[in-house]
Structure formats: C-alpha cells, structure tokens
Design goal:
- The chain folds into 3 domains: about 210 residues, Spore Coat Polysaccharide Biosynthesis Protein SpsA, Chain A; about 60 residues; about 55 residues, no CATH class.
- It contains 12 helices and 9 strands.
Amino acid sequence: MTGKKVSAAIVTYNRLDLLKESLGAVLGQTKYLNHVIVINNKSNDGTKEYLSSLTDERLVVFNSEDNLGGAGGFNQAVRLFAEKTDDDYVWLMDDDTIVQPDALEHLVDFAEEHDHVGFVNSQVRWGSLEGNPSWMNVPAPRGFTWQMYMTQKNPAVEVVNSTFVSVMFSRKMVAMIGLPQKEYFIWGDDMEYTNRIADVDRGYTVLNSIAVHKSKENSMPGDIVKEKDESRLWRYDFEFRNRVLTAKRISKHEYMRTIINAFIFDLRFVLFNKNVKFRFTKAKMIIRGIFKGMLFNPEVEYADGLSRVPKRSINALFKARHLAMPTDIFTLDDDIKVIHESKLTDFKGHTVAADRFIEQQMGDFRQ
C-alpha cells in the first residue's frame, strides 16, 4: 500500500550469538526494510569480524572506537539514519530483540493509515512468543484516550513513552526533536526521547506487531530495591540521574514528583525493607543520582544536513490556552480538539501573558 522505506538500527555490545539472531530476524522482514544500521560498541567477542564477513547490501556497520553505552549507540544510529540514508522511518532495537517477520509491516501500515502518529512500537514478550509481557518494555498508556484509535483491522493502544525495543518514528520527527541524548549513557534515554516525541504527536503500541526480548531476567525497569547482582549496581547512578532530567523536561510537577518519590519510596524501601542486598551502597546511589540529576541538562543535538522543522508542543499548546483563557474549564474532548487542530498562534490576542509566552516559544525555535 505504500512505498515507504525504513532503516532498522541495532546497538550491540558483546552479545554475538544474540546479535546474529536479532539481525537475522530483522533482515527477514516481509516489507519496507531498506537499511540495517548496526552500532558495534567496541565489542571484543568477535562481533567486528562477524559483521565484516556479511555481504548484505542493506547493512550499514559502525564500529565505535569507544563503548558509547546504549544511549550513545542509539544517538549514533539515528544520526546515521538522518545523515546517510533517505529512508522515511527509523526502527530501533537492542541486540537481544527478536522481531517477528511482519513486525515492521504492521508498524508502518499503522503509522501510514493514521494521523498524528509520533511513534509506534511493538508488543514485547519476554523470552519467547508464549512468554509473559516483557515488564521493562511495557509503556504507560495515555490516560482516558488510549482506546480512541483501536480497530479490529489493526488495533493499537495509545501510549506516552516507549523503550528502544522495537520502536519506530519518522525522519520528520527527528528533524523536529533532534537526536537521542547520548549523555544518558545507559538507561532512560528511550523514555526521555519518546516523551519528547509524545509532546509533538501521539505514540501507539501496535498490538499485532510482535517482538521477543531475550533479556536475562523479566524484571521491572530500574528496580534498585530488588537488585541482587552486584555487577549491575553501577547502572543505578545513571538511572536516578537520568530519571530526574526526563521528568524535568516533562513538567515542573513531574520533576518534583520524581524527586519526592525517589526519597519516600526508593530510598525508604532500600533502607528499611527486609532482605535488601547492598543496602547502604544503594542508598548512596539514590541520593547521589538525584542531586546529579538536578544539575544535569545537556543540550539536544540535531543531525547535520537535516532541515529543522518547527516543533509543535502539546504541552505548550495547553499552557498557551490556559494563559489565554485562565478562568475557562475544559473537557477531555476540548483537549483532544486542541491536540488535533490547534496551533500556538490561535491563542494570541487574548491576554498579555499568553502573547508573551507564545512569542517566547516561537523565539526559541528561531534561535
């Protein structure tokens, strides 16, 4: 139904057997696949040699001289998609993601058949097709409105974020919001990036696009209380720092809520729950990560040669409407209409505060 082209992108580090399986599944897609970008994060297990032996013309291999972390790897992958291909969409995944042959076809078809789609992701199962949901890859549904675009033909659930385990978005979206934040290094870069997209347009989990995540454990994301593997503890320094910045970029309310919850839930449970391993090390990590996050605010990068597209912000639209009509009460249907039909300038001329805010927003892009 469409001639759209897609670059898949896999970030890998020292998991050659899983990479072979993941890459084989991606190359076997039924439709739309045009390139496969593989970011090799300085693996030392034969990954570089294996990739150099492949002859598929669709492959674009980047062997990094340093371990960029997952975040740096995905930053590089999206940059290569934007700067080295003319494909319409980029489809991201880890090296332990095994996609079904028609997974990409369903993602592209849904994105092309519906308006206001910012990103689409797959339904992710853990270990096998018959496994439970992969809990770390279950996105948050958008409150109240997620049922609006479900159909028998191609059902989807509206979500507000996604992990980088089978998620796809467009070239235009990259031009609007920039690249994933490489400074996150590991954990949380996917939440921050898809939250950025969800502020422009809607995200959807396409239920008949299926991926299997072959992670070692089916754990909840960032669960420091239950963590028992000492070799993984270092990751939580990044987890809490990155969590704070992600919240800060959503709203002041979310920023404060995230900091408060880290202290009254994570820190309290680590200190006082029974059978918590590495109790005081974890407590120090939570406190250190939160304070690092308060000061952490790296700039967003943009791909070279990709024409900047003015960014439409749903949060900015709502704030402009509130400033323009501060005493009005709006229904959920009113909110949906704003998302679908409004632009910032629709709220000019009502109040000085609204006009000042709109000019500031438009000025930020012109800079």
